[in-house]
Amino acid sequence: MNATDVREAVTRAHRDEWARIVAGLTRRFGDLDIAEEAAAEAFATAVERWPADGVPPNPGAWLTTTANRKAIDRIRRESRRDDKHREAQVVYDAGPPEPAGAIDDDRLRLIFTCCHPALATDARVALTLRLVGGLTVPEIARAFLVAESALGQRITRAKAKIKAARVPYRVPAAEDLPARVSGVLAVLFLVFNEGYLATGPGTDPVRQDLTAEAIRLTRLIRALLPDDGEVAGLLALMLLIEARRPARLSAGGELVPLAEQDRGAWDAELVAEGHRLVRERLAAAAAGTAPGRYQILAAINAVHTSARDIRDTDWSQVVALYDQLVRLDPSPVVALNRAIAVAELDGPEVALAVVDRLAGPLDGYHAYHAARADLLRRLGRGGESRAAYDRAIELAGNTAETAYLARRRDELR
Known about the structure:
This protein is an all-alpha fold.
């Protein structure tokens, strides 16, 4: 086995096993620092030893055993190891035992630990992306649009807060789940988005491992909360987006926008499941249950995936749904997406006026400049459009998206 094969094996093992190893170590030792560092040391050992010894028949088992040994070695080296053992015991014993029938999944336990309300929302998301998603600090920093140093400090403080607050490592009791689930959904959506449009310069442009993991964990949460509308809405949203994945990249590795995708390549089963969930939530809304953010986003995607061709899209319905969403989430990003839909309904000039008003909060967001470039192109303002494409390319972190934007810019010449 050559060096390339070994690197690929390590990369594949990291993708498949990181979250399992960290979660298992956390359950055993009750310490997130020990879990993360021991897992990282295990993968570093694999990088050193596998080229000479060969990739083991069961890489996950090898890494798990190695990580456990690393954790034990670290505890033994600690001069205060007895205190650490007592801290771990407190974590195991905190709170009542989980009720019978609760889903026994270490990664789900880890998510609820990382998303504990003792932490600020941004800390919950950063910590979970690192420990459960396995994203690097630079990748997470891109998702947050913050400096890597600040993001690293945020993760460190979050782990310290978990230890100081003695946050238990378990799925919350049934009566506590509704209050806790919104933070978990936000985390899972960001994990999904990182897979849907990966930002790391050294990663694949679409990371199916992350989208699949986000969907898997969302299904688990839906099993815990089958009547929660936002859980169903998020699952539907993920499924309808994931259904389009086979058509999102060209043979040359370029991003294919929705308008140009081969809709026959979409996953029909995922589309059908997503539509079924949306219909269930629409029935609940008709009965007087107001939809939340994820349910509205799922409904927007249901409109897109219901059209046999981009020209068949009901843009008036899309804009009406965005109007609902703006009332729930009046963020600049939602306003930008609404403007893109307005362009199809009322024309690019009307939409550009809306987009230009978002320049302040979104100047560092590549999608803002990409949308603006497209609107300017449609208005025949080639020079301004090229400049906007240049800025979007400068800010974009996804290789397939960069290739698409570069081609669109070059076509203006």
